[in-house]
Write a structure and sequence with these properties.
Strand content: over 45%
Low-confidence stretches: none
Radius of gyration: 13 Å
Number of helices: 1
Strand order of the largest sheet: 1-2-3-4
Distance between the termini: 26 Å
Shape: elongated
Helix content: 10-25%
Mean pLDDT: 94
Order of helices and strands: EEEEH
Number of strands: 4
Structural class: alpha+beta
Length: 87
C-alpha cells in the first residue's frame, strides 16, 4: 500500500489558534487497485512548539486495513508540513 497523492487540501476555519484543521482527498494504491476518498486531519502545536498530527474520517468501506492507511497518510502529512506545503 502506498499513498499516491494528497490533493485538494483546504484549511478549515477554527476558533482555536493552535490547532490547524484541514480537509483533503487521498489517492492510495493497493493490491494493483487505486482508491480515492476524502479525509480530514489536524496539526496541533503545543506551547513548546512541538507538533502532533492526527488523521480522521477514513472510510470504513475501504477494501484494505484502516491502520496502515492511517499511518501512511500521517507520514505523508508530516512530510508535507516539514516542506511547508500545507496551506
Amino acid at each position: 500500500m502506498r499513498v499516491a497523492e494528497i490533493k485538494s487540501i483546504s484549511k478549515d476555519d477554527g476558533y482555536i489558534y493552535y490547532i490547524n484543521r484541514y480537509k483533503a482527498t487521498a489517492v492510495i494504491e493497493y493490491l494493483s487497485k487505486e482508491a480515492s476518498f476524502p479525509f480530514s486531519f489536524y496539526v496541533e502545536i503545543n506551547p513548546l512548539g512541538m507538533r502532533s498530527y492526527h488523521v480522521n474520517n477514513i472510510p470504513r468501506s475501504l477494501d484494505y486495513p484502516i491502520i496502515p492507511v492511517m499511518k501512511a497518510l500521517k507520514e505523508c502529512v508530516i512530510e508535507m508540513d516539514k516542506k511547508h506545503e500545507l496551506p
